[in-house]
TrEMBL record:
Its main location: membrane. It comes from Lysinibacillus sphaericus OT4b.31. It comes from the Bacteria. One of its GO terms (cellular component) is membrane. The chain crosses the membrane at residues 12-33, 39-60, 80-104, 116-134, 146-166, 186-205, 217-244, 264-286, 307-323, 335-356. The lineage of its organism: Bacteria, Bacillati, Bacillota, Bacilli, Bacillales. It holds the Pfam family Spore_permease. Gene3D superfamilies: Amino acid/polyamine transporter I (1.20.1740.10). This is Variant surface antigen E (VlpE prolipoprotein). InterPro entries: Spore_GerAB (IPR004761). Belongs to the amino acid-polyamine-organocation (APC) superfamily. Spore germination protein (SGP) (TC 2.A.3.9) family.
Length: 383
């Protein structure tokens, strides 16, 4: 299968929308439940600390600029151990994709179509996912460019329309939270916002045409995505209050329901739903794409597209049993997920970076290589 190459601008857009993901709906409740009215401060600290996470990812990626994350595991740790860690990474992305299907079904059934079973939504979304994955990352990246202005416009409309409902008293007193929940809230925020960006090493920088510009885009997209999430958290606190935000499953959707302009423009929560669906589908696609491409590289399959249909079918089934209810899902996001993602987004990259330095594995080619040369190298690395 021919190697796929995307532009640095397209990569920045993917980082931005991916870093928001499903968090735009679920993270306000989790954060406010943990840090109360100081949740926006905790999320701001999380965005700043994400600089270190992205720096780690870039440092590792620069060691093997022509390889995906799965291929880098095999090259740095050896075929046996590298395949084991790569399999663990693929399991993580596959479970995460299934979990996002669960969120889609749960949200649409709870808020939009209560009489429709969640599996119906999972199947419909998976049909779109199968088609998008078959077309490849290049086509999907161009689609993300089209969706970005739509996302930005809807988000701006949402912020402007909800602003009259703000009550500054809801955010007071400031800095009342103790250190322990504050740290816990920051970790939870990063586990949902920036740590999952490890998945993008499946395309960065091996599938990017301008490495240096893409590095800047990595930082820019992460900061912009963190800013959007922080704004959502602040608005939930200012409008709904701490108690209401922490007790709701999807507080930002409830926030959109509060919009009322002159008793004429009301019930425009579909705006928030569409914003969420754009960002969550971007994250779902990249999780699933990483699973399909990574598994194909582990099994040495030249055309990984033949894995799309069976993996999509399995993912749909898993999405129906991964969480028995929304309470289990919330606890998973607060307790299990931060530990799970940290092992692949912090511990594994650190291990790979240390081993690469000890083995003196350095990039064989400079960024000045042409796109065609990098494409040829990638094709040669796929057996």
């Amino acid at each position: 299968m021919n190697a796929e190459i995307i532009g640095a601008r397209q990569f920045t857009i993917l980082v931005f929308l991916y870093s928001i993901g499903t968090a735009v709906l679920v993270i306000p409740a989790v954060m406010v439940g943990e840090v109360k009215q100081d949740a926006w401060i905790s999320s701001t600290v999380g965005v700043v600390l994400s600089f270190l996470v992205i720096k780690l990812f870039i440092s590792l990626a620069n060691r093997t600029p022509n390889l995906s994350f799965v291929e880098a595991n095999k090259k740095i740790l050896g075929k046996f151990i590298g395949k084991l860690t790569a399999v663990g990474f693929i399991i993580m992305t596959f479970i995460s994709a299934s979990q996002l299907l669960y969120y889609i079904g749960s949200f649409l059934q709870t808020e939009v179509m209560p009489e429709t079973p969640p599996v119906t939504f999972a199947i419909l979304v998976n049909l779109a996912l199968i088609y998008a994955t078959y077309l490849g990352i290049e086509v999907f990246a161009r689609s993300a460019e089209i969706l970005l202005p739509v996302f930005s416009l809807l988000f701006l409309i949402f912020v402007i329309c909800i602003s009259p409902e703000i009550d500054v008293k809801n955010v007071q007193p400031i800095l009342e939270t103790t250190a322990s929940p504050f740290i816990s809230g920051t970790i939870i925020f990063m586990s949902i916002h920036s740590l999952p960006l490890i998945v993008l090493l499946m395309i960065f920088p091996s599938a990017i045409n301008e490495h240096k510009s893409a590095q800047k885009g990595f930082y820019i997209g992460t900061i912009a995505g963190g800013a959007v999430l922080t704004i959502i958290i602040v608005l939930c606190i200012l409008v709904l209050g701490v108690t209401s935000t922490s007790s709701r499953t999807f507080p930002s959707y409830a926030l959109a329901q509060r919009i009322s302009i002159g008793n004429f423009l009301q019930r425009i929560e579909v705006v928030m739903a569409f914003i969420w669906f754009i960002s969550i589908f971007i994250r779902l696609y990249l999780y699933f794409y990483a699973t399909v491409k990574g598994l194909g590289q582990i099994l040495n399959i030249k055309d990984h597209r033949q894995l799309i249909l069976p993996l999509a079918m399995i993912s749909t089934a898993i999405s129906q049993i991964i969480h028995p209810n929304i309470i289990h899902s919330t606890e998973y996001n607060k307790v299990t997920w931060p530990l799970f993602i940290s092992s692949f987004a912090i511990l594994l990259p650190l291990l790979l970076l240390i081993v690469a330095k000890l083995r003196k594995i350095n990039p064989a080619e400079k960024d000045s290589n042409t796109i065609n040369e990098r494409v040829d190298n990638e094709e040669n690395n796929i057996n």
